[in-house]
Amino acid sequence: IHSFPMEHTSDLLRLISLYRFGGIYLDMDIIVLKSLEKLPLNYVGAESNYSLCNAVIGLAADGIGHEVAELFLERYVKYFNGKAYAQNGPALVTAVLLKFCGTSLMKAMEDGRKSCKGFRLFNTTAFYSIPWQEWRHFTEPRYLEETMERTKDSLMIHIWNIASRRERIKVDSNIAYVKYAEKYCPRTYAVAGDYF
C-alpha cells in the first residue's frame, strides 16, 4: 500500500533522470535567487543540521555525479517504503551521502567539497533558510522583513508547497513570496492575474 504515490513517483523519476542525463533537479516550488551557471555540479543542500533534502540536486552525468546517482537508485530499490513520506527522498539522500562522504553531516557542510570526495553538501542557508515548519514566513506580512533578511545570502528558496499549496496568495500582497516572485519570476508574476 502506498500512502504517497505522487511524491514517491517524483522521488524515483528525479533519480532516474539524474542517473541517465545528469544536470540540476529543482522542485517546482523553488525560486532561484542567484545564477547557478558557475556552480559546479555534484551538490545537495541540508534542510537542517541532521538532514539533507532532495528538492535541489545537482549531479554530473559522469564521475562522482553518476556514482552518487547510482547509489541513490540502489538505495531506493532496496529500502523503498510506500508508507513513509520522507523515506524515499530526504532520508535516502541523507543516508547515501553520509555513507559516501564517510563523515558527519556538519563536518561535510563545513569542509565543502574537501571532505566528501568532491561532492558538496551546502548548509541550510543555500536552499532552505526557512525550514518547512516555518513555511508561513513566505505567506504572512508580519514575517516579511525577517524572511528577507534570513534569505539574503541564499542561492534559492523553497516555498514548501506541500504545506503552503492551499494558501490563496494575492499578487499585490506585502509578503516574501510575492516579493520574490516579482523580482525573480517577472514573467510569471506579470501573467498571474489577481492570485497565484
UniProtKB/TrEMBL annotation:
InterPro entries, A to Z: A1-4-GlycosylTfrase_dom (IPR007652), Glycosyltransf_32 (IPR051981), GlycoTrfase_DXD_sugar-bd_CS (IPR007577), Nucleotide-diphossugar_trans (IPR029044)
Source organism phylogeny: Eukaryota, Metazoa, Ecdysozoa, Arthropoda, Hexapoda
Family: Belongs to the glycosyltransferase 32 family.
Organism: Drosophila arizonae
Membrane topology: Single-pass type II membrane protein
Protein name, UniProt field: Lactosylceramide 4-alpha-galactosyltransferase-like
Pfam families the UniProt entry points to: Gb3_synth, Gly_transf_sug
Location in or out of the cell: Golgi apparatus membrane
Keyword set, alphabetical order: Glycosyltransferase, Golgi apparatus, Membrane, Transferase
